[in-house]
Amino acid sequence: MLLQLAVNGIIAGSAYALLALGFGIIYGTTRTFHFAHGAVYTLAGYVFYHSLVVLGLPFFVGVAAALAIAAGLGPSMEQFIYRPLRTVGASEMEVLLSSLGLYVLIENLIIILWRSDPRSVPVAEALQRGIQIGPVWVTGLQFLVLATSLVLWGALLLFLRRTKLGKAIRALAADPEMTEIVGIDERRVRLFVYALGSALAGVAVVLSAIDTGIAPSAGMNALLIATISVIVGGTNSISGGVAGGFLIGVAENVGIWQIASEWKQAIAFGLLVVFILLRPTGLIGPRWAK
Amino acid sequence: MGEVAGPVDYIFYILILVSIYAILAVSLNLLVGMTGLISMAHAAFMAIGAYTTALLVTGTGMNFFFTVGIGMLIAAGISALLALPSLRVKGDHYIIASFGFQVIIISILLNWPSLTRGPFGIMGIPRPRLFGFTFASYQSFFLLSAGLAIVCSLVAWRVSTSAFGAVLRAIREDEVAAQSLGKDVTRFKVLVFVLGCSLAAVAGSLYASVASFIDPFTFDIAESIFVLAIVIIGGKGNVLGSVLGAVVLIAVPELLKFLAVPSAIADPLRRMLYGMLLVVFMRFMPSGLLPERAGR
After folding, report:
1. Which pLDDT does position B295 carry in this prediction?
2. Handedness of CA A68, A195, A37, A208 (dihedral sign)
3. What is the pLDDT of residues B30-78, one digit of tens each?
4. Which end of chain B has fewer CB atoms at under 10 Å, N or C?
5. Is A130 helix (H, G, I), strand (E, B) or coil?
6. Which residues contact A171 (CB under 8 A, 6 or more apart)?
7. Containing H/E element for A150?
8. DSSP state of B35
9. CB contact, 8 Å: B84 with chain A?
10. What is the mean pLDDT of chain A?
11. Interstrand relation of B133-134 and B129-130 (parallel, antiparallel or unpaired)
């Protein structure tokens, strides 16, 4: 029983880690508290739902449409909302509030377009079937979530360390002014980071929609998990959020062993408070720039 | 909602809502505008006041006015507990912590049915009574809610013009400088947080009493964001701005009702509108409708 819960926790944690990757790359690089990321997530989820269920398009077309909408919307917000705000000298708080406004705007647009009741996306039943490995049951979908998260995490780390663009992203995270001085096009790098982070949110929402469906509030919950993971794990490295995500997933699921499952969110929040009190730098301390 | 009969009742009902949201906005403005602390948990403290009143009035028959005081005390206690750890951290982390409190408090209301009746909410909350007089009509209830809104605004105004308020603004402008002048920054922040949250409980008590039905969803995160939008659009740090913000954001969307917009769409449309206003104001009018006066 405990082993099963731990495995469930690791799989839930990998989904959280994926959320943290998308939010974390944007937050860690631009230091913009991109609230509207939650709305990008939800909208991509509904585009996926609409393509598959309403329009009856093939699975991969739906996934492509969701990723395209996400990767287009995130950078547009940077280009048309955040950048003009920074240009007129807005404070961080004003950028955040504006992002919050965008979130509210898009979430309610979604409610108008698709109504507020949750929608499910029935795909490939084979994915939902359980496989028994020793004493533990795992579904194909759970494997898919775990594998996707781990592969994307690895790919992102390689990309950030090995490629020129990846290094430019790390430079921007470490020192924005210096980045411009050495001749990196800060504007292009930012737009790319928004596209990358938003596409990761697109992947996360597709997996989550297959599993539990999609509702207008999905983005807010995803955002809460992503931010808690990033803070618990440490805001200075991309792996911090991943570690935080896994920790929250395991804590929530193992917690069910003793506590009723309605309290999942309370467990995640309790962890946040413990970290804020005892280790405000998170699991992985400040070493992004290395 | 109690039954709204005729246009006069309807107008007074809207005015009651305006005064309730004015209390919420004025009290949140103490945190957001004066101290620079963005809290996304204000609806949760409103919920504490609302549930205290609803449970005590329906369960024990206690007088409404006592329950307001008890609600304020509970909100003060909980906000102090939450503030002590979280106000040590700065900026974004604090916002997430308050986002977390909001989620937690609503999840407690939902998942503790033996006390709160969970998702079913509490029905049949009676109107307040004082010395044999019942604030049963919308007109009389409006006098009560407007009176309390004025008291709360005066408290906020008094705080903002006091030496205490000056320290809060110093913290907002430059926390390190305030600290180096020997101010116990955390203590000031905790005090203003507790004050703001206990005033939010007053708004909750009034709401429970006028709506006569409450459930946890009434006080969700969207509600917290709505109050935040009132503060920002009205004008950070300006008490009258928050009142004006409440008038604009409550009354204007009511006009949608006259445009024959289907009710399933009216609500999200109203929210879209204030989301859009938030974006537009940040870009073109970041200090809001009534900016904080310089030097005050």
Report:
1. 41
2. positive
3. 988 888 888 889 999 999 999 999 999 998 888 889 999 999 999 999 9
4. N
5. strand
6. A178, A179, A182, A184
7. helix A140-162
8. I
9. no
10. 88
11. antiparallel
Beta bridge partners of A214: A119
Which pLDDT band, with edges at 50, 70 and 90, does B1 fall under?
Answer: very low
Size of interface A-B (CB pairs under 8 A): 118
* B162: three-class secondary structure by DSSP: coil
Closest CA to B87 of B189, B162, B179, B196: B189
Q: Examine the pLDDT at A289 and tell me if it is beyond 50.
A: no
Place of tokens 């205490």: B164
User: Could A101 and B276 be called an inter-chain contact, meaning their C-beta atoms sit closer than 8 Å?
Assistant: yes
Does residue A76 surpass a pLDDT of 90? Answer: yes
CB atoms within 10 A of CB A260: 9
Q: What does the DSSP assignment read for A4-59?
A: HHHHHHHHHHHHHHHHHHHHHHHHHHH----TTHHHHHHHHHHHHHIIIIIS---H
Within chain B, residue ranges assigned H as helices are 6-29, 42-60, 64-86, 91-111, 113-116, 138-161, 163-173, 175-180, 185-211, 221-234, 239-246, 252-254, 263-284
Residues of A with CB under 8 A from a CB of B: 33, 81, 84-85, 88, 90, 92-98, 100-109, 111-112, 115-116, 220, 224, 227-228, 231, 260, 262-263, 265-266, 269, 272-273, 276-277, 280
- Binary contact (B85, A276; C-beta < 8 A): yes
Predicted TM-score (pTM) of the model is 0.90
How far apart, in whole angstroms, are the C-alpha atoms of residue A193 and residue A189? 6
Q: Where are the domains positioned within chain B?
A: 6-220
Distance from CA of B48 to the nearest CA of A (A): 17
CATH for A2-120+144-278 (1.10.3470, 3.30.70, 1.10.1030, 1.20.120):
1.10.3470
Please answer yes or no on whether A276 and B93 come within 8 Å at the CB atom.
yes
For B168-186, the pLDDT digits (tens) are: 888 887 777 777 777 777 7
How crowded is residue A243: how many other Cβ atoms within 10 Å of its Cβ? 20
What is the average per-residue pLDDT within A25-34? 92
User: Is residue B222 within 8 angstroms of chain A, CB to CB?
Assistant: yes
Question: Is B100–A81 a contact, with Cβ atoms under 8 angstroms apart?
Answer: no
B199 to B26, B42, B105, B152: CA distances (angstroms): 9, 10, 17, 7
Q: Domain ranges for chain A, please list them.
A: 2-120+144-278
DSSP A136: E
Phi, psi for A156 (deg, rounded to 5): -65, -40
Concatenating the DSSP letter of every residue in B226-251 gives HHHHHHHHH-TT-HHHHHHHHIIIII
Per-residue b or e along A207-240, where b marks 16 or more CB atoms closer than 10 Å to that residue's CB: bbbbbebbbbbbbbbbbbbbbbbbbbbbbbbbbb
Do B40 and B165 form a contact (C-beta atoms < 8 A)?
no
Give the number of residues written for chain B.
296
| pLDDT of the residue at B88 | 67
Q: How many CA atoms lie within 13 A of A141 on its CB side?
A: 20
